[in-house]
Structure formats: C-alpha cells, structure tokens
Specification:
Strand order of the largest sheet of chain B: 10-1-12-11
Number of strands of chain B: 12
Helix content of chain A: over 70%
Oligomer: heterodimer
Shape of chain B: globular
Strand content of chain A: under 5%
Strand content of chain B: 5-15%
Number of helices of chain B: 10
Largest sheet of chain A: none
Radius of gyration of chain B: 21 Å
Helix content of chain B: 25-40%
Distance between the termini of chain B: 60 Å
C-alpha cells in the first residue's frame, strides 16, 4: 500500500501550491472578470441592435458585401481554436517535455475560441433561433455548412473529453490540495483513484485520443477553406489551395494567440519559473516559420491571381494589391507579417537574444495582420461579381465592430473563467518506483457497455451516412452526430466508469520512513477512494508496513 | 462474413423500402397533377425587343409583395429585386452605350445555390424551378454568396410598405420576414392557378395558357419576355431557344440556366 501513499511526497507540496495559486478569486481577478464582462456586453449590444433593427444595422448588402467582418472574425476564431489541441496533442505524442505545462492552457484557448466562433456564427445568420436545430435536423450532406457543423461538434466533444481525461488526476489532487472549492473538485474528479494502473490507463487513452484528434482538427479549418474555395461563382475564392491555406493561417493566428495568452497569465499569476523565456523563444521560432510559410502562400496566390488569369480573378487581386484595398493589404503584410517575422528570425538565430516582450510584440502584430488578411479574403470578392452589377461599397458599422471587439472580450472572459475554475498547470507526478505488472482487466459489464457504445456509435454514423439522400425522413446529420458523440464517449467510459474489481496489491516497494497521514494528500487519498475496503484497511496496512520497515532498520 | 453481408443487405433493404415508399407517394401525387410529361419551365427574353422600361421590375414587385427598401438601404445594396435590370455601360462619355438586360433568377439546371444550402431551404422542383422556403431558411447567405448571377436576396430588415401599398399586397404570395433569403420563383402561384383551371376544364395545359404567365411577361409592353415549357418541342420557348440569336448568361460556368436571352450580337460581359 505504501506505493500509493508516496505518490505525492512532501517536498512537492510547496510547488503544488505555487501551481494552484491561480484558483482563488482575489480582488484583482474579480475586477478583471468584471472588466471582461463589461467588454462582452459590447458584443451583446451589437447583437441586440441587430435583433431590434435587423441586419440592416451592418454595412452589408445583397449588391455589396454579402458577408462582412463578422465572417472574418468567425474564420479568425475558428483558426485560433485550431491550435490549442494541436499544441497539446503534439506535446503528448512527440513527448515535448519542455512545453508540457503549456498544453492545458492551449486546450482552454481552443474551447474559449470555438465557443466565441460559434456565437459569432449565430450572430451572423439571419435566424439564430433556427440555426442549430435546422442544421442538425434538416442538414444536407452536400453543404459545407453541414460539414462544418459535423466537424465542430466532433471537435468540441472530442477536445472536451480529451481535456477532461488529461485533467482528471489534477482535479483529484485539487480536491485535496486546492486552496478553494475542494468539494467542487471532488465532484469534478468523478471518483478518480490515483493508482499507477489508472494513471497508466488515463495516459494511454489520452495518447490515443490525441492521435485521433489531430486529423479532426485539420478538418475543422479545412472545412472553412471549402466554404470559400468551392464557390465557382466568386472570383478570388475558387481555389483548390484554399483549405491548406486556411489551416496554415489558423496555425499562425492560433500560435500567436497562445503566446499572448501565455504572456498575460504568466505575468498575472507569477509563473515565471514554470514558463522560462526559452519557451517563448521556442514558440517564437515556430511562429516565425509558419508566418514565412503563410507569406509564401500569399505570394503564390497573388501571383496566380495577377499573372494572366481570367479577368474576374485579376480584377479582385488588382483591387487587393493596387486598388482600394491596398491600403489594408500592404500594412497587414509588411507590419503584420514581414516585420514580426524579421523580429522572430533575429531572435531565433541569435543565441543571446531571448526576449519575451519581443516575442509578444511580434505575436500581437501577427495576430492583427492575420485578422486583416482574413477580412481581405472575405470582402474584396464581393466587389467584383461576375456580372456587372453596381456594387455598394462596404463600410463596417458600429454594430459590427461591437460584435467583433466584444468577441475578443468574450474569448478572454471564457478563458479567465476556465483558468479560475480548473487547474491550468499539470501537477507533478512522482515517477513510479516499480512498473505495474499489468493493467487490471476491466469487468465484463464494463467491456459490454464500451463495446456496445463502439458498435452503436459506428452503426449510427453508418446509418446517418447511408440515409444521407433522404434528409426529410431520416434526419441524417442528427443520426451521425449522435453516433460521433457516442463514439467519443468511449474513451470517457473507459476511464470514468467505476470498476468494482478487487484492488490489486502493487508489488511491495522499498519504503522510506514516512508517516502516513501526515501530509494532506495522503489523508485525502483514502477519503476520496470509493472502495470501502481501501478506506478501512489500507491505512492499517500502511501503518503495519511502516512499522515493519522501521523495525527492519 | 456471411452474417455481415446479410446484415448489410437487410439495412440496405430497409433504406430502399423507405425511399421507395417516399418516392412512390410523391410520384402518385404528381400523376394527379399533370398526366402528360413533366414540364420544364423556362423563359426567353428578347433583348432586341426590350426597351428598358423596367415595367417587368415593377410588376414583379407588385405581384410578389417585395418590400420597399428606402433610400439608405438601396444605397447600401439592400433593395430586393426578384426581377432586376442589369445595365452595363460601354464606352466613356460621350461615346456611351447602355444595355438593358432584364434579369430574373436563371433557374439553373445545375444550381450552385442548392448544393451549399445546409438546411434544404432551397431545392429544385420536378418542373425545374429553384424554389425557396423562407420558413426553413436560417439566413446564412451561403446561397446568395454562391450564386454567380447574384439573383438571390437577403431580407436585411423587417419588410416595410407605405400604408397605401399594404392594402394592395398579393394574398397569393407569403410575406417574408427579416433574416431569410428570397428569390424569383417564376410566379409559381400563377402556374398552380392555371394548372387547376385547366384541370377543372378537363383539358391539358397549353402553351397559350403559360406564354405570358409570370407577372413580368404579362406586363412587358414590348412582349420581349416569353414563358413556357422547354420540354414541349412545340412551345414558343423551345422554338425561340433554337434561334441563332440565343445565348445564356455565364454559360461557361456550366450551370445551364433556363433563362435564355436573344440578341443579334452576342452580349459581352
């Protein structure tokens, strides 16, 4: 039993408290929450204007910009959401120990950004109240919007499961050690037992989940590329290159946002030790690299558009590079991409330079530059329809700016709430003394439930796809979405469903002299354990072992 | 292996039965409506006859309860025109020439707008009309974006009419609320009326019944607009589409519009 008791030794206690310092809501935190909520109310104001007076409060028009900066904002936030899980999954799969503490923060960024993006979609469509239900219930398989609904649902559910399972042990530790809200953490840990076997099972499940999530994440932003890239009737968009291009842009804006968020939180919660400057340098090098790739893609797109292509395309790109949009294009490219790239490059190649402010400034510039580039993908195409219609010029109105700026506040607010509610940093684990001989096998009923979920999920997805041509009778998107949710619940079930099997004793380990029950952690461990046998017998047994060990000495 | 294949066959059987039930019920109702071959509605607009008087635009507004946009919204491109006039200018002042091209929805054979609609709010009827169901529409504007002809319109605000025009709203056409897309539907309510009339009289629908059926065609003082069944080789539209003057807008996109224009010199975009 001693193997369990020493999982968190005394010396890590101070470190843990340091890692959990962000949880209590102090005055400064409350003030920031209030401020961000005020900022979010700007978003509500913009939306309210639109509800009261219609979409006419925006600058859009049928013979004008049919989509405006809100769509650019959607693309931007979908892009940001793209990167959180990417960082986390890559860190896990490639075992990049140095960036490990960044992973969960990045996952929070994902969830906050995708929520903001979906809110923005709801605010852009004409009938927000019909939008989710109609797409799921009457969805047509051939519509990019339905693909987007499918991949976003998959992504949100998958990354929530991933986030939860990766965080479960820390929630459990928090239920013992957190300065506040221990009961809440205990509920959220859902009866976690910190045995080496369960730890190993969690790690393994989360690893596989990371492998599955990576392609889903690429698909999310590809679909946004397809929404634009499949429009043959819009010069400037129709482009097979659009999907990878969007994914690349997502990686750029997502990384720069993660750098900004990390810098702010590091300052606010004094995490200087956890995130040394070299982490920023490493992220900066990667950001510079993808920015370079993005600029290369931009160049290639512009060359194709300007060289000798159909007049429709050429009109758009001429307008973008030399015409009325050049006022935005060139600053976005020079100040928003070339300059930060130069900064990051200089920092990357010079071993003596390792500056957080420099990286943050570069990330901020890139973020602004990329947002502008998104707007420049959406708007200029509408100025050049294939037929010579008169086009009303597009000027974003106050309501639109309210929604866009409010979205950033909403994103920050969601992020802050998540940071305050969940442990952000991974709490250290003691390396196991002896390898576990084998993971205890799952009881039959659990295997049955998991097997049925797998089979049921796969069958639902298959049924949904098979019924795709009769959407009015079968409502296929609802079928395949429930299948996907069922499939994604499988890793959750594997880890969370209780096992009433006999607690296998771990092989006896050499025990240091160590008073059981003196550290808060070990007290909590017995209390939260759901098995009565462990609660009653384990302390006795542990004391007996300790006494025996002392006698041996 | 055997069991999986039988299961697959079983599932396929369920689906096939269900779809055949659905389609057979549809087919049954269709045979009642018209015993002859299905019509494929099309329109021919003779640009050499068109005087650019825009009577078709006005008639369409009156017939289909199209709201009045007002000065600001029109400036912003938010006016709704199921039938619009495309007026490209050629040359510079003083050597100017302007063309007038009445532009209803093209009712493409292969419409890009239907493919992108996520909720099936727009679809093609069996008679080839690209229809729009406002109650289903979520207002994402993807169809409007995807239409190469910009022939779809979004309701940017609640529809408004001057009080005297409220009295004149057409009871046959529903008024569309804010936040949905609307478009030309070839005056499908008039097609339905004339079909019912023909059935009541116990005779098939003739070309003379539909030649001037839509509001735009009925109004056109120059008789430049002809409506009819493209599947019927004897109809006037079928005859006119064979004319060497015939062309369609943006033919190279492969959308196969069912609105055919006639002009001596081929129109240049």
């Amino acid at each position: 039993m001693a193997g369990v008791a020493v999982a968190i030794p005394f010396r890590s206690q101070d470190a843990d408290e340091n890692l959990l310092r962000h949880l209590p809501l102090a005055r400064r935190g409350g003030l920031s929450l209030l401020l961000l909520a005020l900022g979010t109310s700007v978003l509500c104001y913009g939306f309210l204007q639109q509800v009261l007076h219609g979409h006419a409060v925006t600058g859009q028009g049928s013979h004008g910009a049919i989509w405006g900066i809100i769509v650019a904002n959607i693309v931007n936030f979908i892009g940001i959401s793209h990167v959180g899980i990417a960082i986390s999954a890559v860190v896990r799969i490639l075992r990049l120990g140095r960036y490990r503490q960044l992973a969960r923060l990045a996952e929070f960024v994902t969830l906050a950004a995708i929520t903001t993006a979906v809110t923005n979609i709801a605010m852009d469509v004409g009938h927000p109240e019909r939008f989710v239900f109609n797409v799921m219930w009457y969805g047509r398989y051939h519509a990019p919007f339905v693909w987007s609904c499918t991949v976003i649902t998959t992504y949100v559910v998958g990354s929530s499961v991933y986030l939860y399972l990766a965080m479960r042990r820390d929630l459990w530790v928090c239920s013992v050690k957190a300065p506040v809200r221990r009961r809440l953490f205990q509920v959220m840990a859902l009866g976690y037992r910190d045995t080496p076997a369960s730890r190993r099972r969690h790690n393994r499940v989360v690893w596989w989940l990371a492998v599955i999530i990576l392609p889903i994440m690429v698909s999310v932003h590809s679909v946004y590329g397809y929404i634009f890239g499949l429009q043959a009737g819009r010069p400037g968009w129709y482009n097979p290159f659009q999907a990878p291009y969007f994914v690349l842009g997502a990686i750029v804006s997502g990384f720069s946002t993660v750098i900004l968020v990390l810098a702010v939180l590091r300052k606010a919660f004094r995490w200087e030790d956890t995130f040394p400057p070299r982490i920023f340098k490493g992220l900066g090098i990667f950001l510079g690299f993808v920015t370079l790739l993005y600029m290369y893609s931009l160049f290639s797109e512009w060359l194709t558009g300007m060289y000798a292509s159909p007049e429709g395309e050429r009109a758009v790109f001429r307008d973008l590079l030399l015409g009325r949009f050049s006022l935005f294009t060139w600053p976005a490219v020079i100040v928003g991409m070339l300059l930060p790239f130069a900064l990051l490059f200089l920092q990357g190649v010079n071993p003596r330079v390792c500056s957080i402010p420099l990286t943050v400034v570069a990330a901020l510039l890139i973020n602004l530059g990329l947002w502008t580039t998104r707007a420049l993908i959406v708007v200029p195409s509408f100025y050049h329809p294939l037929l010579p219609w008169d086009v009303a010029p597009y000027t974003p109105t106050i309501a639109e700016w309210c929604i866009v700026i409010g979205s950033f506040f909403m994103f920050a607010l969601l992020l802050l709430v998540m940071v305050k509610v969940f442990p952000v940093l991974e709490l250290p684990e003691e390396p196991e003394h002896a390898p576990v001989s084998s993971t205890p096998s799952m009881p039959l009923w659990k295997r049955l439930v998991i097997g049925m979920s797998l089979a049921g999920g796969a069958a639902l997805v298959g049924l949904g796809i098979a019924a795709r041509t009769s959407p009015e009778i079968f409502h296929p998107p609802a079928i395949w979405l429930s299948g996907i949710v069922l499939l994604l619940s499988v890793p959750f079930q594997i880890c969370v469903l209780p096992e009433r099997s006999r607690m296998r004793m771990v092989s006896r380990q050499p025990v240091e002299p160590h008073v059981v029950g003196a550290s808060q952690a070990s007290v909590g461990r017995y209390l939260v354990s759901p098995s009565r046998r462990v609660v009653l017998k384990a302390p006795l047994r542990a004391i007996a072992t300790t006494v025996k060990a002392r006698q041996d000495i | 292996m055997a069991s999986s294949s039988t299961r697959r066959r079983f599932l396929a059987g369920i689906l096939a039965t269900a779809s055949s039930v659905a389609s057979s019920s549809r087919r049954a109702s269709a045979t009642v409506a018209s015993p002859a071959k299905r019509a494929k509605w099309g329109m021919v607009i003779d640009l050499d006859r068109c005087t650019g008087c825009q009577a078709c635009v006005v008639a369409c507004r009156a017939e289909n309860n199209i709201p009045v946009a007002g000065a600001v919204d029109t400036e912003k491109g938010r006016g709704i025109f199921w039938m619009n006039q495309l007026t490209p200018l050629r040359g510079t002042y003083p050597d100017l020439s302007q063309q007038f091209i009445p532009a209803p929805c093209n009712h493409c054979e292969d419409p890009p707008c239907i493919k992108v609609c996520p909720v099936g709010a727009t679809s093609q009827t069996e008679e080839g009309i690209t229809q729009q169901i406002p109650d289903r529409c979520i207002g994402c504007r993807l169809c409007e974006v995807s239409c190469p002809y910009t022939r779809r319109y979004f309701n940017w605000s609640e529809p408004q009419w001057p009080s005297e025009r409220r009295e004149q709203l057409n009871p046959d056409v529903a008024v569309r609320p804010h936040g949905v897309i609307e478009k030309c539907m070839f005056c499908h309510h008039r097609i339905r009326q004339v079909k019912e009339k023909a059935r009541a009289e116990g005779r098939p629908l003739t070309d003379a019944d539909v030649r001037r059926l839509p509001a735009c065609a009925e109004t056109c003082p120059a008789e430049a607009i002809v409506f009819g069944d493209l599947n019927d080789p004897a109809s006037e539209v079928s005859r006119l589409r064979e004319s060497p003057r015939a062309f369609r807008l943006l033919e190279e996109l492969g959308t196969h519009p069912k609105v055919i224009y006639l002009r001596e010199a081929k129109w240049q975009e």
